UniProtKB/TrEMBL annotation, chain A:
PANTHER family: 5-OXOPROLINASE SUBUNIT C. Transmembrane segments: none annotated. Signal peptide: none annotated. Pfam families: CT_A_B. Keywords: ATP-binding, Hydrolase, Nucleotide-binding. The keyword Amino-acid biosynthesis does not apply. SMART domains: AHS2. Residues 34-340 form the Carboxyltransferase domain. Residues 105-135 are annotated as: Disordered. GO terms for molecular function: hydrolase activity. This is Allophanate hydrolase subunit 2. The keyword Cell membrane does not apply.
Automatic annotation (TrEMBL), chain B:
The keyword Lipoprotein does not apply. GO terms for molecular function: protein kinase inhibitor activity. Residues 2-195 form the Carboxyltransferase domain. It holds the Pfam family CT_C_D. InterPro entries: CT_C_D (IPR003833), Cyclophilin-like_dom_sf (IPR029000), PxpB (IPR010016). SUPFAM superfamilies: Cyclophilin-like, PH0987 N-terminal domain-like. This is KipI family sensor histidine kinase inhibitor. Keywords: ATP-binding, Hydrolase, Nucleotide-binding, Protein kinase inhibitor. It comes from Nonomuraea roseoviolacea subsp. carminata.
Amino acid sequence: MSGVLARGAARVVEVLAPGPYATVQDLGRPGLAHLGVPCSGAADADALRLANRLVGNPEGLAGIELTFGGARLAFHAGAWVAVTGAGCPLSAVPLDAKATAAAGTSGTAVPGEGPPGTAAPGEGASSAAAPGGAGWRAPAAGAGVPFWVPAGTELRFGTPAWGLRSYLAVRGGVAVEPVLGSRSTDSLSGLGPEPLRAGTVLPVGPVTGLEPIVADVAPPRGPRPAVLRVLPGPRDDWFAPGALAELCAEPYTVSQDSNRVGVRLGGRELARAREGELPSEGMVAGALQVPPSGQPIVFLADHPPTGGYPVIAVLVAADLPVAAQLRPGDRVRFTTHRRA
Amino acid sequence: MIRSAGEHGLIVETGTLEVSHRLDALLRDDRPRGVVEIVPGPETVLVVAPGADRARLRATLERLAAEAESATAGAAGSGEPDLVRIPVVYDGEDLGAVAELAGLSPDEVVARHTGRELVVGWLGFAPGFAYLTGLDPALRVPRLGTPRTSVPAGSVAVAGPYSAVYPSASPGGWRLLGRTSLRVWDVTADPPSPFRPGTRVRFERA
């Protein structure tokens, strides 16, 4: 850690360990698909929006998207944060007293514990506390609650009990340099910041003028049944009669090579009625694209803006965040949804 | 025909790239409320509009699609699209192979590549990667059997009926004719690309 960070208590979050895969995400780069730019943004956008609301941020500020938890983040200055999405056990330890805390003598917090009091949080009120020093008090770290992380704290994320992607919002937002109007890492095109690694230092934006923190708790929504509702089309006519029924007949298994581009599935093959290639056309998030293997891919945030394989159906918008939380090995069912 | 692509998307079947471009121009000139993305393709235009009044949007799209299809729609949009001139040093690794496949001399390949005005069909594959249509049919060659793991930014290439300029370094299987110093992708510029669907393009020997 640099002396500047230690002494100046800079408003940054330092990544000690990113876990399996972690990126900065906001709501992406909508409006540039015609230039070949994927939308990108938080895969579970609902969860990021909620985390931002909990700390009084505008919903579209950038936060951190963790995949399978596992991250360790250092706070050299105090900050209000909230964690949403996949249910990660959280713990907090003083930065310079890890050995003690790891032994479980102090500093761990129970997930879902109540809010840190109802008094209006003062910006930087506790930032005078010396890192790891006497001023450090274990925060009431838990999912779905805004909590104050005192200066000199290491926040640790365990492995989520359910779901895949967790979101950390920090009051003021992660303020890395935007690219084309967004701070999101686009794993497909490489736009935006590099994925997080040990040593990445993320600046935090100003907190002046933000809404006060008003929510005490937004209960984590917990695991949801892995049933995804789809609207047929736009290219269901490219498939054999009964292909939609096949899609909905039996669960599919989420493949290991799923990522932010899409959830790859294995299960019943969806047979085509026509051969040949579809002229390239625009793709939407939630599309079930079917390559020649007949095994569908559910497009997530980093999906390519255009594609040449037919889309048999598209997820109902409300189910996109459910798809974004599917883990490799999960079983998921589809059901057709009739427009109201 | 207009197809549904989920709750937020509508795909207008235009049948041809020209109609796609005209519809795209009409939509951008007078963007219907709530429209976030307009993505032209060779035979379609995808319109994404979360929260829009869908029935109303569909009616608007039907009207504009009919307008774009009518023969008199040549003047649709904001007049003649820009012409982008691209200076090329024709020293690409595949120039010889393309010449051989085309049964031409390398000089003739260059003459045919610079001899026509091309039009940006659509962008895809990578940010700023424009599929340029209108290539001289003599230059239609298949992609490489094995794509290169890295093609430098600014590479000028052909494959099938298209030509392209690689906007950034990436893997690629197109055949390289040469390179340009013109930056065709710059995230600090607004817009980041000189290309958009419908842009006219002329390659010139540097």
